[in-house]
């Protein structure tokens, strides 16, 4: 998303890019999913994950400042734990993209179906399929979302979140917070498991690190981003519960419901349009990055070498892109047949991305110098592992991907690896 800026990013530009990495279209539905899991006590899950974000975000900023590299967490894992660990981290990200892309597409589908009054399930899946096809076609044609357009989409999301809070908050009622914890602490932990979807992305600081003029700019951007998302997330969480009450757990389009209360029925088509832009932009960007990651994994022996061929500077790695498209089609088909819902898809994605985050901060414990930074990395690792535990049975997804990565790496070690330069 950054483009080639050549180490000239300042704190203001960096903040905008980091906000874009952390915020995403998942915020359009996560208040509903969290409320369904924990009721009003879902607010506690939001607060806990915001507290987790502080040491995690600052640890990634410290890593990026000391070891600026576009390889991100996979590079740190290789530095701290070796080639196999790097392959596992790469597989966690690459392997969950088909699931995460489908989840993102369904977010847009739900808002469009609500805006147009379509049948909920049929309309949602039809729009989701169209968004996925469009994103893969755009990548095949070499049309990726520009940094400026992506930034505009992020600003649109910030505007929707802020608008929902400001216009609906006056309608909040204290009675909507009772009973506060109908499902007890297990419900709060359950809510945290799905909310992790909104808190992964701090590792993007490591990918952007080489673009900053200095490490202080990266740290300032991280602190500013923490402040902004704290205000937005808590505002959305409290307003959703306070205004919608029991409806928060029932409405699949909570922000549209809030805006409709605040400004009227015109809100739904507007939010539906914004949702389409946001979800397409996010899917397009992730598919572009993941297709190149797949080629790099093949280059380094973590995928069959065949998938590394055809990639290079300025060229689309069609074989890796095709593998992603096939995996996404299979995932979509299975989700339709087995009636897998959005909550399940988001939890599976959260488990993998949370595992990436945990690997990154654990690597920091090994590579950061002794003293305050290493202590912070230890705290971040403990909190990240605790958050990872909230994923429960969904940890099976990163476990299976890790096993596949180790098998692929072991097999590739027995044969020559094609060396291909990946942009």
UniProtKB/TrEMBL annotation:
TM spans (from-to): 46-67, 88-113, 125-142, 149-168, 180-202, 223-246, 266-289, 321-340, 346-368, 375-408
Membrane topology: Multi-pass membrane protein
Keyword Transmembrane in record: yes
Cellular compartment(s): Cell membrane
Keyword Transport belongs to the record: no
Pfam (any one): AA_permease_2
Annotated keywords: Cell membrane, Membrane, Transmembrane, Transmembrane helix
Descriptive protein name: Amino acid efflux transporter
